[in-house]
Amino acid sequence: MNNDNVVRVLKLNKKPDGHYAGLQTVLDLPTTSHGEIVFMDINCNGKFIMTGYADTQICLWSLKGNLLATIVTNVATLHCAKVSPCGRFVAASGFTPDVKVWEVNFEKSSGDFHSVERAFELKGHSAGIPCFAFSGDSTHMVSLSKDKTFRLYDINVEYKKKQDARLIQDAIWTTEDVDVTSTQVALSNDSRCIVIATKGNVSILSGVDGSVKAVIQSPLTGPIQKLMLDPSSGYIITIGGRLVRVFRNTIGYEITIATLKDKLTYATQDSISQRLQQQLEDTQKVLSACKYHLTA
User: Fold this and answer.
1) What is the distance, to the nearest Å, from the Cα of residue 249 to the centroid of all Cα atoms in its chain?
2) Region 129-150 average pLDDT
3) Where are the alpha helices (DSSP H) in 100-213?
4) Residue 289: enclosing H or E segment and its boundaries?
5) Parallel, antiparallel, or unpaired: how do β-strands 184-187 and 166-172 relate?
6) How many CB atoms are closer than 10 A to CB 40?
7) What is the 3-state secondary structure (H, E, C) of 41-93?
8) pLDDT digit string, tens, across residues 45-73
9) Minimal CA–CA distance to 135: which of 264, 60, 203, 228?
10) Which helix (DSSP H) or strand (DSSP E) does residue 276 occupy?
């Protein structure tokens, strides 16, 4: 996405010896009447590109530039739009107090695009939702609201049988007014750790009890433009301007250790106890090997 409000698809070329030889422009996605492009994401399998627009509509495109579908979000103002890590879902949030999630379907035999269907909604907030995030395995989602709460959901449900996403945690994450433009959130793979960036600071919360475990004050010299966790959830990545700062997510390991210890006290079968004990020891080893620790 560049300053001309165009999404450009590029190909990474390889030399015969396997080394990369630079980028080659393949195509620009067609322009639309939906206004400025405010969000863009891509399916993990390369099946489609998502673009979100100022008029709150979302378009899905093939990598050949063909329009696959247009989604009318009905969120009044589009604050956030993402493709799930598994590539199966597209979600959007905005001025309305819910997150809307659609399933993108492809033919099993040919792999061709088939349809977009409403899957489920994340409900319960009393104000608009600036941002949300999927867990790495796409089984959980977290939403942040202007009502100053976060809500953590289990979305591994049979929504085609009208099952709703299951609420796991609901807690206040801030006492200050929420800045829609600067607030971002990331969710760990196990959904136990929630990382929030707002007003230049980063907070690390427990998805288990909802408490704030640590705050990183002003990790960058300016605003945080992108917040993310690496695929292992072991590192917190902050990006702003030309600066990238990476933090070891020791708080996430500490939350995991506390959760495993709690589960061990209730384990009644030897096989489960042994598995939990091994997981606990492995996590403790990783934590002890970290040179720098974040402290609450």
Assistant:
1) 16
2) 97
3) none
4) helix 270-289
5) unpaired
6) 14
7) EECCCCCCEEEEECCCEEEEECCCCCEEEEEECCCCCEEEEEECCCCCEEEEE
8) 999 999 999 999 999 999 999 999 999 99
9) 228
10) helix 270-289
